[in-house]
Design brief:
15 strands; globular; 18 helices; Rossmann fold; 7-stranded mixed β-sheet; alpha/beta; binds cobalamin; pyruvate-formate lyase- activating enzyme; binds iron/sulfur cluster
Amino acid sequence: MKRGVLLLKPPRAVGTLHAVTPILGLGYLASVLREKGYRVNIFDGLNTPSWEKFISMIADYDIFGIQVFPSEISILKDTVETIKERKKEGTIIVGGALASSFPKYLLENMPSIDFVVIGEGELTISYLDKLLNKENLSSIPNLCWRDGNKIQINSREYIKDLDEIPYPAWDLINPNNYPCAPLSFSAKKEKIAPVIFSRGCFFKCTFCASKLIMGSRVRYRSPQNLFNEILKIYSDFNIEEFHFMDDNLAFDKYKLQEFCRLIINKGLKIYLNATVGIRVETIDIETLKLMEKAGFYAVGVGVESGSEEVLKQMKKGITLEKLKEKIKLIKNSTNMKITAFFMFGLPYEKPAHRFQTIKCACSLPVDKILFSIFNPAPGSELYYSIFKSDFPPKRILELDFHTFSYVSGFFNVWQIRILRIISYMIFYLRPHILKNIISDVRSPFQMKMLMIRIYKALFK
Ligand code: B12
Ligand code: SF4
């Protein structure tokens, strides 16, 4: 057995984030490392928000792989310092959304970090032996490292055949050890497992930086590969509900249909949720009917704005008319619950556009709406146009993705807050919508998460 690796997400109090679900990315990396003979463990600081517990684990490991999100710069600093104080000779590798956006910044400003990995980590981590021996580092894909005084950023590669990577180490991210706090808030079952069918997104929305991690070429696993994984989780862990983390699950409707047919033919009784969202242009009645028959009970749709002009400016790649038509199609041909996602405070948005958005949100035949506050995601087109030469911005440590870190010229913070509260009230204070939300609460923990979401929606 080789040296021990601890993969971790820094500890964070419940309530600082709106969802706590098995940490899929680290699950994938753990499997690859196991195949290479390493002893691996995962500490998910979102599920176990305890610094004491994290500190007590450090001594048992030599290599630390940390996942960080865009707003976690200061928590990352505390985490790497905590590790280095207790394990001087330990190797620290950082990956995830923040690492993919600011590799150079992290290596320049945090000397305790040994390596940064951009994009998908499986490829890089499979060379861990070489990496630890500092052997031909320039040949390791997606690796960022220090070469004397220079920072080297190796070429980026994406996994070509997703069926070649092993399933996540589900025993280390066992869904039974997680509370019922999915991204979508609601679930049919107490325990859910996140799964991902495709990686990458081909669209170019100006506010989004997803391609920095998974690239712009959409790659799917084979439907059989996904189906087998679901069967395994179902039989090994007794999990009957699966939430899709794909940026665009329906990009290839034929793959989605094939997966649905596998479930239907097997007669598997499971619940499925396209929680992150589907692009609706590919969706037709046949696909929708198959989805519902296979167990999909909810889908998310990114509408973003009620203004045709704003949709065009944000390069959404679809018209409002088409979005409305497809949402109606979902509503009229299935019983699936629909959540529509909107954005508040985009730089293009003038006061009239905001009112169009509120009007549109309240007129759509959907069950839930979510108004995200626009924050310039590091790496997105808007991020570069807003911060221009100041990159990464001096304010990087202040970038907080839960409150406003950027306010466009047309609204001040209070105007956006009040408009958001009013919009939520208009939408949610309708008896049939309220009844739906209340019936989704299945446990005291879920009630707590609902309260956190309401608090954030109103005051953050
Ligand atoms: C689930 C999810 C969450 C969950 C995470 C729960 C969890 N336990 O993982 C929650 C709700 C917490 C969350 C929050 C946010 N999220 Co989020 N989230 C996702 C989502 C939908 C799926 C993540 C996932 O499981 N992917 C599948 C796995 C396989 O990929 P992965 O996690 O990225 O891991 C791979 C690589 O990143 C890398 N990697 C990851 N960690 C490590 C560690 C090491 C050591 C190494 C070497 C490699 C490595 O290798 C992994 C395997 O390939 C993605 C979209 C997507 N499709 O990925 C968005 C996404 C990651 N989120 C995003 C954003 C913007 C946010 C928020 C800022 C949103 C907000 N306004 O609140 C917050 C961040 C809060 C914060 N703390 O900063 C963006 C990031 C964009 C960017 N580049 O900045 C994404 C890409 C969505 C998008 N389309 O824009 N999110
Ligand atoms: S918002 Fe969705 S569709 Fe647009 S680029 Fe990002 S992942 Fe793709």
